[in-house]
Structure formats: structure tokens, C-alpha cells
Amino acid sequence: MVADLLVLAELFPNGISRYAIGGLFVGLGAAVIYAGTAINAGASTFLESTLSYVSDRSRFARYAGSRDWRLVFTLGIILGAAVYAVVYQDGTWTTDVAAWRLLVGGILVGIGTRVGKGCTSGHGVCGVGSASKTSIAGVLAFLLTAIITAQIVAALGVTP
Amino acid sequence: MSTAGGNEGRHPLFMPLILVGGLIFGFGLGYSHMARPEVVLDFLQFEDFGLLFVMFGGAAVTGLAYVVVPRLFDRAPLTGDRFGRRLKSFDRNVLIGGGIFGVGWGLSGICPGAGYASLGVGNLPILWAIGGMFIGAYAQGVWRSRTAQAEATAASSD
């Protein structure tokens, strides 16, 4: 029993409640939008739909009809996180991860989510919730390469 | 998706509901600490497995919604659209794109939704990542528009 607890403490050094409660809220946000509108909300189509404001290319223009509410959804996400920060966080929080990692990683995330038809929220939360085999395959693909990449980068001594 | 795509004749509560949904979603990303790249990297380096609870906790709630909501309403109250699950067709792009996404996620520790939320907790350096996501999505869109055009031209000249 004590040994089990020690293993748990090792796997979850910060406990699980913040993760589980946070996850429930993420799902609830998507569920509220779904219940009212039948829309399966994902976070990454915002990138293309917002690009339709500045580019006429067909790939972006096809999202022109949804670009306004996707902008509102993203503003909501920013504000919601700000509410969390005001209530629970001491002032602002900034990352120590190097700028080049954020930029290069961001570019690959931007390409990958569009090629792969979804991201962590579209595939991970709505797709897995739909028991979609496509989304489960997508999640397994990005989890695998993300774990390999993060482990290699850490092994090379890049911190953080 | 039909009504949701257009903006004429939208229900007056459509935008407020999207905003409220986004607020709850973003609050959850903040509360789960997923808006912090360090926490994601700790997960990917097997130092803290808590992030599994964020994704599966979220998927459990949406999964419940996909079962319960269509039994409560015939059509979505604010759009009149029919309820469907999020099912996309599978092809090898799902694996290729997912693989590229994962390399980027593993390098930066941030994904789109968590990136927006990260701005909300005051993490201005995350603009590097969000800028990168726009660059990546733009490059992919330009390439895809060009391929689609080339295919259309090839087809019409047949």
C-alpha cells in the first residue's frame, strides 16, 4: 500500500487534481459550444480562418464564414486563462523555454495540425471523445513523435 | 456546419455562447497548467504523467456530451444544425501531419489552444510560438492551394 503510494507520487509529483479538474473544464467548454451549436470546436482552425483576413488563397478563404466566431473563441480562451491567472496565480507567469524552440516548434505545429486535420483539442479532446479512429491514430502519432523529440532534446542537454 | 459557417441570421446568443465556451475552455487550460510549456515537456520526458488526465478528462466530458446532448435536443438550439460526432476521414496525412505536429509539440512544449491560454496567464514569450504556428499554417496553406490549383488545371486539360 505504501509502496503503491510511493509509485504514484513518483508518476504524479504534482498530484492529479489540477490536471483532472483542468481537463474537465476543457471538455466542458467544448461541450457547452457543442450543445448550443453542434460545432465540434478545435483550437487550430483559428490559424487558417484568421489568415483569411489577410490572404485570398482558397485554403484560407473557405474558413472566412467561421473566422469571426473562431476569433471570439480564441479571445475567450485567452480571457479564461487570464481569469485563472488572476484568481490562482501570483502575477504573470513566463516560460524559460528558449525562443528558438518556441518559434521552430510553433512552425512545425502549424504545419502539422493542418496536414494532420487536427490538434490536441480537435483530435485529442473532441475526436477521442467521439471515439473517432482517425483521431485516435492522430493522437498516437503526435504523442509518439513528441515523446521522442522531447527525450532527444533533453538528452542533448538543451534545458529548457 | 452549414449555418455555423455563415454569419447571416445567426442567433443573438451564438457569439455569447462561443465566448462562454472559450472562457471555460481557457480557464481549464490555465488550471491544468497545460498553458506552461515546461509542464508539457515534463510529461513528454516521463517526469510527470498528470497531463494524461487533462486529455482524457476532457475527452470523457465531450464523450458524455456526444451521447447526452442529441437526446436532449433534436437540433442545436442556436444554429438548427444536426448533432454529429467529430469524425474525419483517415488517410496517411493524419499520420504524417500528426508526426510533424508531435515534433513541434515535443520541441516547444506548446500546442495551439494552450498557446492562446498561455498568453492569458501573461506569458508573452509564447508569441514566438503563436507566430510560428501562423507561419507554419500559412506555408502549408499556400502549398496546399497551389497543389489544388495544379490538380484542377491538370484535370481540366485532360
The number of distinct structural domains of chain B comes to 1
The unreliable regions of chain B are 1-5
- What is the multimeric organization of the chains shown? heterodimer
Helical fraction of chain B equals 55-70%
Mean pLDDT across every amino acid position of chain A = 94
Largest interface: A-B, 123 and 125 residues
Strand/helix succession of chain A = HHHHHHHH
Estimate the strand proportion of chain A: under 5%
Q: Note the overall shape of chain A.
A: globular
Q: How many alpha or pi helices of chain B?
A: 7
What average pLDDT do the residues of chain B reach? 91
As a whole number of angstroms, the C-alpha radius of gyration of chain B is 19 Å
Shape of chain B: globular
Number of strands of chain A: 0
The structural class of chain B is: mainly alpha
Radius of gyration of chain A: 18 Å
Q: State the end-to-end CA separation of chain B.
A: 34 Å
Uncertain runs of chain A are none
